[in-house]
Amino acid sequence: KAGVTQTPRYLIKTRGQQVTLSCSPISGHRSVSWYQQTPGQGLQFLFEYFSETQRNKGNFPGRFSGRQFSNSRSEMNVSTLELGDSALYLCASSAEVGLAGAFNEQFFGPGTRLTVL
Amino acid sequence: LAKTTQPISMDSYEGQEVNITCSHNNIATNDYITWYQQFPSQGPRFIIQGYKTKVTNEVASLFIPADRKSSTLSLPRVSLSDTAVYYCLANTDKLIFGTGTRLQVFP
């Protein structure tokens, strides 16, 4: 079974631009979560989608948004890029319905490294 | 929200047992504790998950005391390939990862 794929793997943008990152979950997985990873802040939860609905959201500004399609593929968008948005953006998928509580192993993709100049 | 705290780094030698402890306050009654391993330029990889007492799989053990305010990941007989960052995750609805523990294994 293919793993989680993310495209593109690397991206360079300039301040003020916007960017869209894509994530394809493992076949059959309906939950997709996004994380931002930086050396200073570590792994931070952005949001989670299940069946095209955003179920949870982390503490990020409205410039960060996402969506999920009927085939469970997900995209996240960052508008008006800032230098501080430079990070590794990770996507994870899981099969289970709930995030909290029962076993919900997440499978992570390799990430998209975004550099904002 | 549950906050997790881990040591920033640990050193070990090949063949030794390594124990990494994570503190998690305000963890909810039905939340699980999950540990992940991350190598450079890769996404985290699931290691083990537990709710209470002890869980063991082919790569690690997880000890969670009765009060569930901490958990300890135990890696038996580490090798050089276990050099990585280890994250403790409290499965709250915000999916809060710990700060991560950078484990360095020396020959």
Fold topology:
The complex is a heterodimer of chains A (117) and B (107).
Chain A (H helix, E strand, L loop, with lengths): L4 E3 L2 E4 L5 E6 L6 E8 L3 E9 L2 E5 L6 E5 L5 E5 L8 E8 L12 E2 L3 E5 L1
Parallel strand pairs in A: 2-11
Antiparallel strand pairs in A: 1-3, 3-8, 4-5, 4-9, 5-6, 7-8, 9-10, 9-11
Chain B lengths: L2 E3 L3 E5 L4 E8 L7 E6 L6 E6 L2 E4 L4 E4 L5 E6 L8 E7 L5 E2 L3 E6 L1
Parallel strand pairs in B: 2-11
Antiparallel strand pairs in B: 1-3, 3-8, 4-5, 4-9, 6-7, 7-8, 9-10, 9-11
Structural class of chain B: mainly beta
Order of helices and strands of chain A: EEEEEEEEEEE
Given helix and strand content, the structural type of chain A is mainly beta
Q: Could you tell me which chain pair has the largest interface and how many residues each side has?
A: A-B, 25 and 24 residues
Helix content of chain B: under 10%
Overall mean pLDDT of chain B stands at 89
Provide the residue-averaged pLDDT of chain A.
90
Measure the end-to-end span of chain B: 40 Å
Measured as a percent range, the helix fraction of chain A is under 10%
Overall geometry of chain A: globular
**Strand tally of chain A:** 11
Largest sheet of chain A: 7 strands, mixed
Proportion of residues in β-strands of chain B: over 45%
Rg of chain A computed from alpha carbons, rounded to a whole number of angstroms: 14 Å
Shape of chain B: globular
CA distance, first residue to last residue of chain A: 37 Å
Oligomeric state:
heterodimer
- Give a count of the beta strands of chain B, DSSP E runs of length 2 or more: 11
Proportion of residues in β-strands of chain A: over 45%
Number of helices of chain B: 0
Could you please describe the fold and organization of this structure?
The complex is a heterodimer of chains A (117) and B (107). Chain A is 0% helix and 51% strand. Chain A is mainly β and 117 residues long. In chain A, strands 2, 4, 5, 6, 9, 10 and 11 form a seven-stranded mixed beta sheet that branches. The mean pLDDT of chain A is 90. Chain B is built from no helices and eleven strands. In chain B, the strands form two sheets. In chain B, strands 2, 4, 5, 9, 10 and 11 form a six-stranded mixed beta sheet that branches. Chain B starts with a strand and ends with a strand. Classes of the chains: A mainly beta (117), B mainly beta (107). At the A-B interface, strand 5 and strand 10 of A face strand 5 and strand 10 of B.
